[in-house]
Each structure stands twice: as C-alpha cells, then as structure tokens.
Amino acid sequence: MSTAEGGMSGSRFILERYRELLPVTDATPMVTLGEGGTPLIRSCRLEAELGLEALYFKAEFTNPTGSFKDRGMVLAVAKAAEAGAEAVICASTGNTSASAAAYASRHGLKAIVVVPSGRIAMGKLAQAVAHGAQIVAIDGSFDDALRVVRELAEKHPVALVNSVNPHRIEGQKTGAFEIVDELGAAPDVLCIPVGNAGNITAYWRGFSEYYQMERVVTRPQMWGFQAAGAAPLVSGVPVAHPETIATAIRIGNPATWDGAISARDESEGLIDAVTDEQILEAYRRLAPDEGIFCEPASAASLAGLMQQHAAGVDLSGKTAVCIITGHGLKDPDTALEIEADRVESSAETDAVERALGWG
Ligand code: AN7
Known about the structure:
alpha/beta, binds ligand AN7
C-alpha cells in the first residue's frame, strides 16, 4: 500500500512524507491518525526577553494523542503489525501508554500498559482507559515498569513499543526533519526535556542524517534538560528514587543513556537540571504570555533556556527551538493549582458587571 488509510495526505502523515528515510516497506500498514506536521510557533514575548534572534516552539502537543510519542508510535505499532504481533506492551509515565493504546486500537491490536501507580497525570490515564488498554499499575517507578515489560516481552509474544524499540527513535527523528524543512536551516540551539532520553537521541539523529545528506549545512547544539530530582544524566549515576512535579520525566535510569550523551557531546551542547520551581515558572509563562498550554515536563525545555540566559549565556543572534512535548490538558491538576482570576456570581447581568468591577 502506498497511500494512507482514509486518503489522508500531505504533511500530517510522516510515514509517507519521509518514507525514504524510514524503515517503511511495501508490507508496512500505512495507518495514520494524523501525526506529525506540527506547527513551529514563533514566540511573541519571550524571544525579546531572552535576547534571542528568534525563538520557536515546536508544538508537539498538537499530535493526535497530545504528545510527541505519536511520531514514534505510528511506526513502532505499524512495524509490530507488519511482523504479525497481536499485542503491544509498554512501560510509561503516561504519554507512551496513551499513544500506544491509540495506535493499537487503530491497528486492531491489544495494548498492555504498565505504569507507576498513582503517578500518571489524569488525562493520560483517561486516554489509556478510553482506548481499552489493559492497564497494570505497579507499586514502583517507571524504571521498575520498564524492567518488567522488557522481561515480559522476552517471554511472551508481545511487541515492546518503548523507545528501546528502534522504530520509535526512527519515527521521532522526523521532528528534526520538519524543523529544518520549515526554517530552511537548522536552529543554533535545540532545547528539549529529557526523561528516558529517546527523544533527544531521535532529534540528534534527524539533524545528523539531514547534515550527512547535505540537506542542511549546520546542526544545532542540543540542550537537554532534566528535572533536578530526576537528573541522572547530569550527575552521571542512576537515581534510585526520582521525584519531580513533572511526572512525565520522573525517570531515574534512562534507557537511551548513551544516545543522550552522544547528542550532547557531538553537538557541543549540554544536559542540565532544572528545579520544579523553574519548570513551574516556565509553565506559568507559556500559557498566559505565549498562548501555549503544555504539561509541566514540556516546560522544562523553556525553563532550561531561561536558566542559561539567567546564568549569563549570550543568546544574541541565535535561533532557538524549544520542543513542547505534551499538552496541558494531560495534567489538569497542575493547571488548576494556578491562582485563578475567578469569582462566583448570580446569573444577572448587573451582578456579572459588578463581579468584573465594571459597575
Ligand atoms: C511530555 O510516556 O517516558 O526523554 O513513558 O511524556 O524521550 O523519554 C514520557 C516522556 C518529555 C521525555 N516530555 O522524553 C512515557 C515517557 C513529555 C514526556 C518526555 C516525556 P524522553
């Protein structure tokens, strides 16, 4: 099959758009939910504040399940189906499970998701439930869940779709292709939140492949940011009990550790830690100042950029892209902790006028 199911065409179907750069064969089922083709949104306020030449937000939260995971999952689940799998399995802090469940539904496969009990943002759990995934909530961390699913996938006929599956990284590298295709060049700096470290690895691969193919003449510095309570790549040792408000990146032993270090070193970039306070500060700037409502983990990319600026790093003349990985609606609890500009009123116009301070 060479055309998308349902006749979907163009930029929102990465398996077709970047087919020759992906492990897609004639036997790969070309199933799509409309992933990829996400907007690169120019900053309207923070760009000047940070002294950048240009600042963009790559709106990965506009993917069908509300996170960047769909880029990798569209390929990983298609390849599982192509290989004859009947079920997919993953460990997750929430977004991977939401995406796996959606694509498994589309392919008519069963999805099994293993998650840390009580540590998944509400919206993500709702997605796994809605898609009919079989959910096992374990008394342990994401790292425990990943160990368990790796062992299960060795013993049982299920396809593992965490980013240890190479098709996940392949799909996710298309985010880098889109940035270059749209800007006509690579940015100077790419800011990205880091948890299990699949995405920073994928973006670096995407930029590097375009560079090798001479579709671009430079590559960005990769600036990865972990939450301070879950920053093994910064300290150099796994964290036994990771803790952060950004539950998506509450990961103590990233599976693609070496990929992240290579991305950092080959790009002459950095991987640094941002505190929960810094993450929340960036989170609370993005929605009111830029119109971008993301989940806390996604704000780590901007938090890191703000931290570098505050530390005196000169950003003048530079173009930066922050990857905004997941939607704010995923985690309504954190959003509602913001002090709202809200009053109760009776249903009369004059009462609402008074409530607004107009009368
Ligand atoms: C919003 O869903 O690991 O460094 O199990 O959901 O590639 O792991 C999610 C990770 C950043 C970190 N932002 O990406 C999972 C999971 C959001 C995320 C990351 C995640 P990686």
